[in-house]
Write a structure and sequence with these properties.
heterodimer, A: mainly alpha, two-stranded antiparallel ribbon, 2% strand, elongated, B: alpha+beta, six-stranded antiparallel sheet, three-stranded antiparallel sheet, 2 helices, 9 strands, 28% strand, binds FE2/S2 (inorganic) cluster
C-alpha cells in the first residue's frame, strides 16, 4: 500500500527523479572519509536554519525587549536553552568546519581549474558566514554583543570615503538602538541566510558538474588490500570516539559512533574491491557518521560547556516539577549558551572582546596605531581575501603543480597565522602564562620577591601583567552582573527594558550609591557572606549603619553609646550622657537591680528591632513587654512612639524604610535629630514639584540647612540596600520579587 | 545477491537509521519548544479593588450601569507591568440580585469584543455583531442574537475597610460557548 501511494505520487510529481538526481552521484575512485567536511557544513547550516526559525518565533528585536525575549527563551521555555545553545555553538562549529573544509580542498587541489568558480563561490560562502556570525552576536542585545558590535561598526566607519555612510547604513542611524536591531535582525534572518542558500545551491551544483577531486584511480594490482582499509576505519573510529569522550559526550554516544566505525569496517569484508562508488549509500553513510560526530560535539558543548548562568526560579510556574521538566528547563541549571547582562550604554570600561573566531582580527588591530589602523582593519584582511581569490589562477597549464603547492602553503599558512594571533590575543589577556606555561605574560620579580621596578623591560612586562589582571577583574565583575541580571529577570522585566534591572537593583546599584553618598561618613559592617556587602575601609565620622535597627545593634548602643560604632564620632551627646547616668547609678545599685535593668535593655532592643517590620507582622506579646520596659527605663522622657516631637528621635516604625526615608530627606526634622543634627539632608532637587518641596524645606529650616541632591529612585535604592531588600526599585515601587519577609 | 549488493543494502539501512536518529534528537525538543505556550495557565486572579465605582453613589446608579476598571500586575511573556488595566466591568444596581448589585465583565460572550451601553442606556449592545443584552445580562432577541449566552457575571464582594468600594475576582471566559468556561 505505501508503495502504491508512492507510485501514484511519483507519477504526479516525479519526486523519484529528483531524489535519484540528488543521490545517485557517481564517485570515481570511491567514497572516502575525507570527503565528509562539505556535508557536515551543510548539516550544521541546516541545524542553524531549523534552530534559527524556532528562535524567531520567540525573539523580539527591539531595544527594550530583545534581551528579555532571549532570557525568556533561555530560562522559561521548554528546551529554549537547547535550541538557543545549538544555534550559538552551531555558528562556532561552522567556523571550525570551514577551516577543515578549506584545508581538505587545497590538499586535493580542488580550487584549481576547472573548479575555479566553485572556489570563488566558496569564498562568498565564507564571507556570508562571517556576516551571520557578526550580526547574530548583537541580537541578544547583551553587553558582550553590544560593545563588540560598537567596535566592529566603528571599524567599518574607518573605511575610506564611504565609511561613515556605511556605518549609518548598518546602524540605521547615527546611534545604536532599535533600528540597529531591526536591521541586523533582517540581515541575520533573511538576507544573509537567503544569500547563503543561493550560494550553497550553486556550490553544490557546480561541484556536481565537476565531481570530486579524487586522487589518480589506482590500477587493479595497486589497490590497497581490504585489510588496510579495514584497519584505517578502526583507527578512525577509535580517534572519533576518543575525541568525543574528551568532549564529555556520554559514553553511550561515543560507543555508538565507535561501533558504527567497527560495523562499517567489518562490512568491508563483503565489499567488492572496486575503486568506484556512489554517493548513495557509500558516501552518504560516511557523511552521516561525520554529521553525528559533529552533532555529538555540538550537543555536549551546549550541555556540558557550562556557559550559562544558573538561576533560581521565582514564579511557581517556572519551577520544574518532574524530571522531564527539569531537563526541558535545564537553562535554570546553567546549561546552554551564555547570556551577558543587558546592553547598557552607561557602562564604565566594559571589557569588550569579539567572539573567539574573530579574535585574530582583534589582535591584528593591536599592531597598528593611529592612522595605520586601516592597515589592520581593511588592507590586510582584504589583501588576504584577494590572495585567496587569485589562488585558482595559478593552476593553468604547466603551473598546475606549482599552483597546487602554493594553495596548500597559503591556506595552511593563513590558518596558522589565525591560530597564532588568536593564541596571542588569549595570552595578552591572561596574567599568567597559558598553554602549559608556553606563552604569555609573566611577572618579573627581584631576588627579594618584590616586583622589579628598575629594569625598563621588566617594568613593561609587569605593566602588561597588571593590565591583564585588570581585564580579568572586569571580566569577573561583568560575569557577576550577568548572573545578577539573569536572576533578577526571573521576576519579570520592566516595560522600560531589561537594562533597568541592574540600574535599579539595590544589591549592585544601591551599593554603589551608598558608597558615593553615605560611606563618606558612615561605616557599614556586613557579614562576609552577605551578598550586599559593606564598607569598612576609610575614615568615618558617623555611626556604623551595618545592622542598623537590629536587636544586636540597639543592644550594643544601650551598652556603650560612646563607642565608635554608635555616637562616638559624633557630637550627639544625649545617649552618652544617659549612659553615664546609668553607670553612676549602678555604683550604688544592688546586683538584682542591675540584672533587672539589663533584662529591660534586652527587652527594649528586641522590641524596637520589631518596629522595622510592617505593623501586622509584629509580635504582640513582645510589643507589650517592650513597651513596659521602655516606660520603666523612662526612655519616653526623650523619645516618642507616636510621632509627637520630643528631644530625641521618634521611634514609630523605627528602622523601617519609612523611618529611614525621613531620616535621609530631613535628618534635622523634629521627629529625628532636630537641632542636634549634623547630617545633610538628601533630597530630590530635580523634576516637577521638587522646587515646591524644597521651598517648604528652606522655609522650615532657614537657608543654612545643608541639602544634597539625591533622586527619589536613588534614595529608595539606598534604603533597600541598607535594609537588605533585594527587590528591584521601580519609580519607588517594588515591581518584582516576592514580598520581603 | 552479490556480496557487495548485500553490503550496500546494509549500509543503506544504517544510513536511514542514522538519519532518523539525528532527526529525532533534533526534532523532539524542537516540537516541545514550539508547543511550550500550549497549556500555559494565565495567573489566577484574586479579589481586586475596582476603580471608578462606589456602591453607595446612588446618584450614579440612578443614571444606569456604571463602568469600573480593575488594575493589577500583568505578566506579558518576559515583561511585568506593575499596574496595568486587566479589565473593565459593568456594575448594575438590581434589587432582584442577591446583594443588590450585578457585576459583568465588559467582554462580549460572542467573540470577545467590548460591550457598550445600548442607545438610551437601557440595554447592553456589542458594536461588533450586534449582540444585545438586558441590564440583568440576559440575551435579548434570541432569534437573531449571535451570542450563545448572556453577559458573564463575576463574583464580587464589598471591601472590608470601605464597604462603599467593590472587589471583583476578574476572570476571562471562553468565547462562543453556551456555558461559562474559565480560561484564566
Ligand atoms: S463579539 Fe460581540 S457580538 Fe460578536
Amino acid at each position: 500500500m505505501p508503495g502504491k501511494i508512492a507510485d501514484w505520487l511519483d507519477d504526479r510529481i516525479g519526486f523519484r527523479k529528483l531524489r535519484d538526481a540528488l543521490l545517485l552521484e557517481h564517485i570515481p575512485g570511491g567514497a572516502r572519509w575525507r570527503y565528509v567536511w562539505g556535508s557536515t557544513l551543510a548539516f550544521v547550516f541546516g541545524v542553524q536554519l531549523i534552530t534559527g526559525l524556532l528562535l524567531m518565533t520567540a525573539y523580539s528585536p527591539s531595544d527594550t525587549s530583545a534581551w528579555g525575549s532571549v532570557h525568556y527563551i533561555q530560562y522559561r521555555m521548554d528546551f529554549g536553552w537547547l535550541i538557543r545553545g545549538l544555534h550559538h555553538f552551531g555558528s562556532q562549529t561552522m567556523m571550525v568546519l570551514i577551516a577543515l573544509h578549506m584545508v581538505q580542498v587545497v590538499l586535493a587541489g580542488a580550487q584549481l581549474p576547472p573548479r575555479e568558480f566553485n572556489w570563488w563561490i566558496g569564498l562568498g560562502l565564507l564571507g556570508v558566514t562571517f556576516g551571520l556570525g557578526l550580526t547574530g552576536y548583537l541580537l541578544p542585545w547583551d553587553q558582550k554583543g553590544y560593545w563588540a558590535t560598537r567596535v566592529a561598526t566603528n571599524i567599518a566607519a574607518n573605511v575610506p570615503f564611504v565609511g561613515q555612510r556605511l556605518r549609518e547604513f548598518l546602524l540605521g542611524g547615527p546611534d545604536y538602538g532599535n533600528h540597529t536591531l531591526t536591521r541586523f535582525y533582517s540581515l541575520h534572518t533573511f538576507l544573509l541566510p537567503g544569500l547563503l542558500i543561493v550560494l550553497l545551491v550553486a556550490h553544490i551544483a557546480v561541484f556536481r558538474r565537476h565531481g570530486v577531486t579524487h586522487p589518480p584511480v589506482a590500477l587493479p594490482h595497486e589497490r590497497p588490500a581490504v585489510g588496510t582499509a579495514l584497519l584505517r576505519d578502526l583507527v578512525l573510529g577509535a580517534l572519533a570516539a576518543g575525541a568525543l569522550y574528551s568532549f564529555h559526550v556520554p559514553a553511550v554516544t561515543c560507543g555508538i559512533i565507535g561501533g558504527l566505525f567497527v560495523v562499517f569496517a567489518l562490512s568491508r569484508l563483503k565489499a567488492e574491491n572496486v575503486q568506484s562508488g556512489w554517493f548513495w549509500p557509500e558516501q552518504a553513510f560516511r557523511d552521516l557518521v561525520a554529521c553525528l560526530f559533529v552533532f555529538g560535539v555540538l550537543l555536549s558543548l551546549v550541555v556540558f560547556g557550562g556557559h550559562g548562568n544558573p538561576v533560581t526560579p521565582v514564579a511557581p510556574e517556572d519551577a520544574p516539577q518532574t524530571a522531564y521538566q527539569d531537563f526541558a528547563r535545564a537553562g535554570l541549571k546553567g546549561w546552554g549558551a551564555n547570556l551577558d547582562a543587558p546592553a547598557d550604554r552607561d557602562t564604565q570600561g566594559y571589557p569588550a572582546r569579539p567572539e573567539w573566531y574573530f579574535l585574530f582580527l582583534f589582535q591584528l588591530l593591536k599592531y597598528f596605531e593611529g592612522p595605520q589602523i586601516l592597515v589592520g582593519t581593511v588592507y590586510i584582511p582584504n589583501g588576504v581575501m584577494l590572495l585567496l581569490v587569485l589562488l585558482p589562477l595559478l593552476g593553468y597549464g604547466r603551473m598546475r603543480k606549482f599552483g597546487h603547492a602554493v594553495g596548500v602553503v597559503v591556506v595552511v599558512g593563513l590558518l596558522g597565522a589565525v591560530l597564532v594571533l588568536t593564541v596571542q590575543a588569549l595570552a595578552d589577556d591572561s596574567p599568567e602564562p597559558i598553554f602549559w606555561g608556553l606563552i604569555g605574560n609573566k611577572e618579573v620579580r627581584g631576588p627579594d620577591g618584590a616586583l622589579d621596578t628598575t629594569d625598563p623591560a621588566a617594568k613593561e612586562k609587569n605593566a602588561k601583567v597588571a593590565k591583564a589582571r585588570e581585564f580579568q577583574a572586569s571580566l569577573k565583575d561583568a560575569a557577576e552582573k550577568a548572573r545578577r541580571a539573569c536572576q533578577l529577570a526571573m521576576s519579570g522585566i520592566p516595560v522600560e527594558g531589561a537594562r533597568e534591572l541592574l540600574r535599579n537593583d539595590p544589591q549592585t546599584r544601591g551599593r554603589e550609591l551608598f558608597k558615593t553618598h553615605c560611606a563618606v561618613c558612615h561605616k557599614y559592617t556586613a557579614d562576609e557572606k552577605d551578598p550586599f556587602g559593606g564598607f569598612t575601609e576609610g575614615k568615618f565620622s558617623a555611626p556604623d549603619l551595618g545592622g542598623h535597627g537590629s536587636k544586636a545593634w540597639i543592644r550594643g548602643l544601650l551598652a556603650n553609646p560612646g563607642d565608635e560604632r554608635y555616637f562616638g564620632l559624633t557630637k550627639l551627646e544625649g545617649m552618652k550622657k544617659w549612659r553615664k547616668g546609668v553607670d553612676k547609678a549602678r555604683k550604688s545599685a544592688s546586683k538584682d537591680d542591675i540584672a533587672m535593668e539589663e533584662a529591660d535593655f534586652d527587652q527594649i532592643a528586641a522590641w524596637l528591632a520589631e518596629q522595622a517590620k510592617p505593623p501586622g507582622q509584629r509580635d504582640p506579646k513582645l510589643a507589650q513587654a517592650g513597651k513596659e520596659a521602655f516606660d520603666r527605663q523612662d526612655c519616653g522622657s526623650c523619645h516618642s512612639l507616636d510621632k509627637t516631637p520630643n528631644s530625641a528621635p521618634d521611634f514609630s516604625d523605627y528602622g523601617s524604610p519609612e523611618w529611614l526615608r525621613l531620616m535621609i530627606m530631613n535628618p534635622g526634622h523634629r521627629l529625628r535629630f532636630g537641632q542636634k543634627n549634623e547630617m545633610p539632608a538628601f533630597r530630590n532637587l530635580d523634576g516637577p514639584g521638587a522646587e515646591v518641596y524644597n521651598q517648604e524645606f528652606v522655609d522650615a529650616h532657614g537657608n543654612g540647612a545643608k541639602v544634597i541632591h539625591l533622586s527619589d529612585i536613588d534614595r529608595e535604592l539606598i534604603i533597600r540596600w541598607m535594609t537588605r531588600d533585594g527587590r528591584v526599585v521601580f519609580g519607588g515601587r517594588p515591581i518584582s520579587g516576592p514580598e520581603k519577609k | 545477491m552479490a556480496p557487495s549488493q548485500d553490503r550496500r543494502s546494509f549500509l543503506r539501512l544504517l544510513t536511514h537509521g542514522l538519519g532518523t536518529l539525528i532527526a529525532v534528537v533534533l526534532g523532539a525538543p524542537a516540537v516541545a519548544y514550539l508547543l511550550d505556550p500550549v497549556g500555559r495557565k494565565a495567573r489566577q486572579s484574586q479579589f481586586r479593588l475596582v476603580d471608578g465605582v462606589r456602591l453607595d453613589d446612588d446618584a450614579a446608579f440612578a443614571r444606569g450601569p456604571v463602568q469600573g476598571v480593575i488594575r493589577d500586575f500583568r505578566v506579558d511573556g518576559w515583561t511585568l507591568h506593575p499596574s496595568d488595566v486587566v479589565g473593565r466591568v459593568w456594575v448594575v444596581k438590581d434589587p432582584a440580585a442577591a446583594n443588590g448589585f450585578r457585576v459583568f465583565t465588559t467582554i462580549c460572550p460572542h467573540l470577545g469584543c467590548s460591550v457598550n451601553l445600548g442607545p438610551g442606556g437601557g440595554t447592553f449592545a456589542c458594536p461588533c455583531h450586534n449582540a444585545e443584552f438586558a441590564l440583568d445580562g440576559a440575551r435579548l432577541h434570541p432569534e437573531h442574537n449571535p451570542a450563545r449566552r448572556g453577559l458573564d457575571e463575576l463574583t464580587w464582594r464589598r471591601n472590608d475597610a470601605d464597604p462603599g468600594r467593590l472587589e471583583v475576582q476578574y476572570l476571562n471566559f471562553k468565547a462562543g460557548e453556551e456555558t461559562k468556561i474559565v480560561v484564566g
